[in-house]
Design a protein that fits this description.
Elements lengths: L6 H13 L2 E7 L6 H11 L8 H8 L9 H11 L6 H17 L2 E8 L1 H4 L7 H18 L3 E9 L4 H13 L5 E7 L11 H9 L3 E6 L6 H10 L3 E4 L7 H9 L3 E4 L1 H6 L11 H6 L3 E4 L4 H4 L3 H10 L5 H14 L4 H15 L2
Parallel strand pairs: 1-2, 2-3, 3-4, 4-5, 5-6, 6-7, 7-8
Length: 352
C-alpha cells in the first residue's frame, strides 16, 4: 500500500477483509484469551499474578511495542497464562470466549489447539476434567455462533513425555467432543521430537491427524523429521524450510500444508520484520501455505489484521489470500466431503 493511501482507503480495506468468511488452522487456546477476562478472573480468585487490572497485566501476557523479539520473551508469556486455569468453570468460560471472539472476526471454521499440561498447572484437575471443561466451552459457543470448531491436542516438546502420554490418552477418551489431531509444539531449539515419536504413531493408529511445529526456531531438518517420522501432513510455521531445498522438495512431494503466522514470527524473533518475512518466497517455491494468527492475545491481532498485513506489508495479492484460504479448506482436519464443502464456501465467498 502506498504512502498516498488515505485513511478512508485503509478503513475500506480493513472492512472488506473483516467481512470475508475465514478459516484458521493454527490458533492456540492459551494465547487467545480476553485480557479483560484475565483481569476479572485474577481479581475474583486472588490469583498469584503480577496485576489484577488490564493495563497492569498487559505487559506480562502480550508483546509490547518496545519488548525484545526473542523466543524466550515470547514463551515467557505462557508461564503467566498458565496461572489462570484455576477451575473447570474458568476453563469453560475462557474456551467459550475464545470461540466467540473468532466468530466475531467472521471465522467460520477454526481448529483450536490446546495444551492439557497448561490447563492443569494451577487447577490440579485431571487431564480428562480439564479437557472436558474446555470442550464444553467450545460447544456452548458453537451453539450460538456461526462457527464450526475442531480441537487439536498440543504436546510441548520441552516437557515430560510421560505426562504427554497421559494427556493424549485423556484426549482420545474425549475425541467425540471434536478432538481431531495431535500437535507437537513448545521450545523447538534444543529439544528433539524423537522421544514423542511413539505417541504420534499411536495417535495416527487411533485415527487422529498430525501437525507439528517445525523450522520455526530451529532448522529445516525438523520439517523432514515431522513429515517422515511423526507423520505430519501439516507443519506449524515452517519458515526456515527455505534453508534446505531437499526439505522443500519433500514437502511439495507429500503435499504438506504450512500453517504460517507472520506477526507471531516477528514477535518471537524468527523474522526481523513483516517486510522480511519469507511468506512470498515460500509461495514462490510452490509450498502450500495458510495464513493464521498463532496467538491473538500475545500479538494483539485478529485474523483480519493478518490478512491486512499480508496485503500491505508482505506483498501478497487478493489472489494469494484466496489461494491460501482454499489451501486451508483442503487441509482442514475433516472428512473429505466436509473439506470439499468448505472449499466451495471459500470459492463462493471470493468469486469476483
Amino acid at each position: 500500500m502506498s504512502e498516498d493511501t488515505s485513511p478512508s482507503d485503509v478503513l475500506s480495506l480493513r472492512e472488506r477483509l473483516a467481512a470475508l468468511p475465514k478459516i484458521e488452522l493454527h490458533r492456540h487456546f492459551e494465547g487467545s484469551l480476553r485480557l479483560s477476562s484475565l483481569a476479572e478472573i485474577a481479581k475474583s480468585y486472588q490469583l498469584d499474578v503480577p496485576a489484577y487490572d488490564v493495563e497492569g497485566l498487559r505487559p506480562f501476557v502480550q508483546i509490547m511495542p518496545n519488548a525484545p523479539h526473542t523466543a524466550a520473551h515470547f514463551l515467557s508469556k505462557f508461564a503467566v497464562l498458565r496461572k489462570f486455569y484455576c477451575n473447570p468453570e474458568v476453563i469453560c468460560r475462557l474456551a467459550r470466549e475464545v470461540v466467540e471472539d473468532a466468530a466475531a472476526d467472521n471465522i467460520r471454521y477454526l481448529e483450536l489447539r490446546f495444551t492439557p499440561r497448561a490447563l492443569t498447572h494451577t487447577s490440579r484437575l485431571s487431564y480428562r476434567e480439564a479437557i472436558r471443561s474446555l470442550c464444553e466451552g467450545v460447544a456452548q459457543a458453537q451453539q450460538t455462533h456461526a462457527i464450526a470448531v475442531r480441537l487439536i491436542v498440543s504436546l510441548n516438546r520441552h516437557e515430560s513425555v510421560q505426562e504427554a502420554a497421559k494427556a493424549l490418552h485423556a484426549a482420545l477418551d474425549l475425541r467425540a467432543y471434536g478432538i481431531v489431531a495431535l500437535d507437537l509444539s513448545g521450545q523447538e531449539y534444543g529439544f528433539s521430537a524423537a522421544p514423542f515419536r511413539p505417541l504420534f504413531a499411536e495417535a495416527r493408529q487411533e485415527g487422529l491427524f498430525v501437525t507439528a511445529h517445525a523450522a520455526e526456531w530451529a532448522g529445516a531438518r525438523n520439517v523432514r523429521y515431522a513429515i517422515e517420522q511423526l507423520g505430519a501432513t501439516r507443519i506449524g510455521h515452517g519458515v526456515r524450510i527455505l534453508e534446505d531445498s531437499s526439505a522443500i522438495a519433500l514437502a511439495r512431494e507429500r503435499a504438506v500444508t504450512f500453517e504460517v503466522c507472520p506477526t507471531s514470527n516477528v514477535h518471537s524473533g524468527v523474522c526481523p520484520s513483516l517486510a522480511q518475512h519469507p511468506l512470498k518466497d515460500m509461495l514462490a517455491c510452490g509450498l502450500r501455505l495458510t495464513l493464521n494468527t498463532d496467538d491473538p492475545l500475545l500479538s494483539n491481532i485478529t485474523l483480519s489484521d493478518e490478512f491486512y498485513h499480508a496485503l500491505t506489508a508482505l506483498g501478497c495479492t487478493f489472489a494469494d489470500l484466496r489461494a491460501m484460504a482454499l489451501n486451508a479448506a483442503h487441509a482442514a482436519f475433516l472428512p473429505a466431503e466436509a473439506r470439499t464443502a468448505l472449499a466451495e464456501s471459500v470459492r463462493a465467498a471470493t468469486d469476483g
